[in-house]
From TrEMBL:
InterPro entries: Kinase-like_dom_sf, Prot_kinase_dom, Protein_kinase_ATP_BS, Ser/Thr_kinase_AS. The gene is LOC102593681. One of its GO terms (molecular function) is ATP binding. Belongs to the protein kinase superfamily. CAMK Ser/Thr protein kinase family. SNF1 subfamily. Residues 31-190 form the Protein kinase domain. SUPFAM superfamilies: Protein kinase-like (PK-like). Coiled coil: none annotated. Keywords: ATP-binding, Kinase, Nucleotide-binding, Serine/threonine-protein kinase, Transferase. CIPK serine-threonine protein kinases interact with CBL proteins. Binding of a CBL protein to the regulatory NAF domain of CIPK protein lead to the activation of the kinase in a calcium-dependent manner. This is CBL-interacting protein kinase 1. ATP binds at residue 60.
Amino acid sequence: MVLIHHQQQQQQEEEIVRRERGKKGMRVGKYELGRTLGEGNFGKVKFAKHTDSAQSFAIKILEKNRIQDLRITDQIKREIRTLKVLKHPNVVRLYEVLASKTKIYMVLEYVNGGELFDRIASKGKLSETQGRKLFQQLIDGVSYCHDKGVFHRDLKLENVLIDGGRNIKISDFGLSALPQHLRVWYLTCD
């Protein structure tokens, strides 16, 4: 019975991640992986296309061993829980989470304009009109998060993405906190 269960589990994992030869690259579930969009300390983000709909996604690939070595399992779980709660036009959306024996795959909204940091570094300062528009969107996104009880705690230009319509998307909620994770100290002065 245990052997049958193990074989079924192994088959399911092989279904989640399989390599196809020829023109197609690596696949994760129904997503075909493409170029690397970014890399971090415990994984990378790859461009992906859904094989049925051809819709574009970004898949964050996390190495389970690296996550355990760095003792950040709770941080990853918190990021996933947080993103499941958030649905706002200025926040990157999480569509689903897949896992194999060695990796976790977070299927995220693909934002084609890259980081706001790179935009400013390559093209210089924003016009006043652009800056005002992006700042208003940032305030809207952060306000929405706070209304949901989510605190980003790592908001910086590298974690603000721009889409094709020059709208911002707040990303990377790895250091975020939900109310039950915050410890607030109240001091009174006499």
